[in-house]
């Protein structure tokens, strides 16, 4: 039976320095040649899905942790933060001196001092994943715009640097009309807060796409490495966690493969008979 495969990007398809293993490219291409469909299912907006990822060959994507669904060249669903909500977030972050970036399919838009003030946090994030601590913001976000308009109506979600965990707690209270979360690397310790459309998740987006494709849950496989991927696991018939992933993700998975940079994706594709 042909499968529909959903693959998280950061920590699953690529490592946390944006390195894409040749073995992962080979695995996806071979699986598609065998008739399986492959979609990325990521927190990234489409503007953050760079050309080297599209060049692998994909059937589409789920982005913004579920706010955006694309099958081939057809946008199936796109739920946005409203312009009023975006202004509220930007003003709130400014009032608390929290640097942030807006994720839009039209680009990534960093706050005025995001490049310099987020650098130590992003280097810590890289360190927690066992990666190069000398990485720069522009290496992580090569196409980020640092002088763009911040009051926008095309935003999928917003990530902001946490000065303390209290910033996340306060964001939950400040934005009851949005979904507040955190992310931060190994151990899932929070370094960033994020705000997205209320009620969206990777699970909901997978459900929407499967209904469109006429595919049952039993014919799906999910690959991920973090807590945010657990809803995707629940939406799919079988789930695989990367060896370099978080403990909660591993506990929720049906199978644990090797690390992303140790051919983990390819090894799992072989194990599951996809290639």
TrEMBL record:
SUPFAM superfamilies: HAD-like (SSF56784). This is Cof subfamily of IIB subfamily of haloacid dehalogenase superfamily/HAD-superfamily hydrolase, subfamily IIB. InterPro entries: Cof, HAD-like_sf, HAD_sf. Pfam families: Hydrolase_3. GO terms for cellular component: cytosol. Signal peptide: none annotated. PANTHER family: PHOSPHATASE YKRA-RELATED, PHOSPHOSERINE PHOSPHATASE. GO terms for molecular function: magnesium ion binding; phosphatase activity. Gene3D superfamilies: 3.30.1240.10, HAD superfamily/HAD-like (3.40.50.1000).
């Amino acid at each position: 039976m042909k499968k529909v495969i959903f693959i998280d990007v950061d920590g699953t398809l690529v490592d946390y320095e944006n390195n894409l293993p040749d073995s992962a490219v080979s695995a996806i291409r071979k699986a598609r040649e065998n008739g399986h469909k492959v979609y990325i299912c990521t927190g990234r907006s489409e503007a953050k899905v760079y050309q080297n990822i599209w060049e692998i060959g994909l059937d589409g994507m789920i982005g913004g942790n579920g706010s955006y669904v694309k099958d081939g060249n057809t946008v199936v669903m796109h739920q946005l933060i409203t312009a009023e909500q975006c202004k509220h977030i930007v003003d709130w972050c400014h009032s608390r001196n929290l640097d942030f970036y807006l994720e839009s399919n039209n680009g990534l838009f960093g706050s005025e001092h995001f490049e310099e003030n987020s650098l130590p946090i992003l280097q810590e994030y890289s360190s927690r994943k066992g990666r190069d601590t000398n990485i720069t913001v522009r290496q992580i976000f090569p196409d980020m715009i640092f002088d763009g308009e911040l009051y926008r109506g095309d935003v999928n979600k917003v990530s902001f640097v946490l000065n303390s965990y209290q910033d996340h707690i306060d964001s939950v209270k400040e934005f009851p009309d949005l979904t507040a979360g955190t992310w931060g690397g190994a151990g899932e310790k929070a370094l960033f807060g994020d705000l997205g459309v209320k009620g969206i998740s990777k699970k909901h987006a997978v459900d929407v796409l499967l209904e469109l494709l006429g595919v049952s849950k039993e014919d799906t496989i999910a690959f991920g490495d973090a807590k945010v991927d657990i809803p995707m696991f629940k939406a799919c018939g079988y789930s695989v966690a990367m060896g370099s992933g978080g403990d909660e993700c591993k506990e929720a998975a049906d199978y644990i493969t090797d690390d992303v940079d140790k051919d983990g994706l390819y090894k799992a594709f072989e194990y599951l008979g996809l290639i």
